[in-house]
Amino acid sequence: MRLKSVLISQYKNLKNFTLTFEGDSFIDIFVGKNGSGKSNFLEALIEIFDHVYGFTASGVGPGFEYEIAWDIGGKTTTLRWHGGQMFINGVVRQQLGKTPMPVNIIVYYSGQNDTVAALIRRYRDTYRRSVRKANVAESPRFIGIGPDYKTLLLALMLMLPEASQAREFLRIKLGIEATGGTTRLALRRPTVAHRTRYFDPLDNTQLFWGVKGIARTFLDQLMLCIVGGFTPASLYDRATDTYELGIDVIKFREVFAALPPVEVFCEFNALRALNMIADISIPVRLAANAEVSSRAFSDGQFQSVYLFAISELFKDRECITLLDEPDAFLHPEWQFDFLHQTLAISEQGARTNHILMSSHSASTIAAKVECRIRQIEFIGGRTEAREKGRGELIKSLSAGLITFSEKEAALSIDRVLKNTTQPVLFTEGISDVIILRTAWDCTFPGQDCPFEIEQAFDCAFLRNLMKRQSLYDGNQGRKFFALFDFDGAYQDWSQLGDLIEPDIEKCLTVKRRNCEGYAMLLPVPADLSIRNQVWNANANRTFEGESRLSIELLLKDTPGIDQHFAVDVNDRAGWIKFNGDKLRFAAEVVPQIPPQHLIVFKPIFDFVLSRI
């Protein structure tokens, strides 16, 4: 399965946007600055295939005209939607009939794109209705896999036969020495069951809240995988209105031996469509005999699982896989390995699965792997995708603030630590570093900064970095600080220790137990005009993870830079957001701001200085 070409007449900022896919490379990467259109391209593809799969002659279409061509088994098919009519290989058609089409469109979304998530939710709701009516005979065409799939995918991959290449890869990647013999599956009342109705678990027709069709058939098969004496009713906990199934892994492999792994996944996916899976986990033993649940792995570790799991499960189907920033939360070294892991997919998977991926990661792009990388940018009044060298791409994406040659290794925190001996203040990104270094020079003119200020790529990686015991064990005597934006990153910050500074004006700060690790949130000045985006005066507390204060917003009250801020039209409260290029703002605007307006960052420096 290979896409050959795509033409999109008008979708958001894509106007007469054309792409061709030459050669037989099975992965194409698209990079670009925020707002350039790379995510819009993936969204438009989802809309196109949603229209194709549900095509009727009387349908209104996706709201734009398109032409798309693909190759399946050496045969090229071209679909064109124009003037309210569907043309297949140049001929007007009233129905698609036996037109060769991708079996599945698999969409991975990391949570960064609300529009992609909404498009997948729309299709998932349609599938849920078909499962509810017990009239679904096959897996859905669209399969959206987001962060909520992590435990299911990992448990399923570890339940595959031990000879499975994918299972062995994940076992090594995650440091798993062995897996337990029983997988725990907790089930909750499905969306189709009335919330207050009583279902008698002793009545076979009412077992599992009376679900029918493929969901009930699959649950009956899972009960065959339970070892030991039990009755269906004994699986039910009346107090919590849940069922718990202890699935013996060896028995599971026997029962589903004749069913391809992708079909097993789709059976589980039907339960998910009904919102029945409350939890699934398998015990694993790590190095040094540490026994944990499969749920214990970090978000970054799970992130590395998704692509390989998807490609392995669907390797026997003609598919298109759309990956929206799948490397967003990976450690830079894992980002560097990401494409190499992709190419470890079986030869069969490479023939049948065409992967299109968007990325922001310098480390991913720098990896020496054969693939096409194109930058989506706005040129001469239109959006275009241009192929460029890796070094040029890195320089362009960072507005010249980062240079990265193909000979250089991945961006690495370890390199920073080896080349310095001072305490380190880590931030969420490079623009934060530039702003803080400028603020230091203005706040403490003529004084060398007695600590390093370095980026840690994003809030998730920053959280995982500060949690890593090896950071402290391998750097005895050094002190480490982390600075988080006061927004959704609150959830990352709150995991890093005990509260030692409760004053939001001085930076809410937590300390890691028994380590010199400190995590701070941005200070919230008493006179900041948008203080209400953090402080809930009615409740006399912060909005925690619902707050909205990025480092740029601390400068909101600076005269003469209003054009860099705007009301967020998607926010019901009409809160203010930063509106522009963060790197350019940090490098070009902040150095021109009068020093008295940069004093807002002094509480950050004061805390670090007080500890070192």
Automatic annotation (TrEMBL):
Residues covered by the Endonuclease GajA/Old nuclease/RecF-like AAA domain: 1-50
GO MF annotation list: ATP binding; ATP hydrolysis activity
Start and end residues of each ATPase AAA-type core domain: 291-365
Cited InterPro entries: AAA_GajA/Old/RecF-like (IPR041685), ATPase_AAA_core (IPR003959), P-loop_NTPase (IPR027417)
Superkingdom assignment: Bacteria
GO biological process: DNA synthesis involved in DNA repair; double-strand break repair
Keyword set, alphabetical order: ATP-binding, Nucleotide-binding
Name of the protein: ATP-binding protein
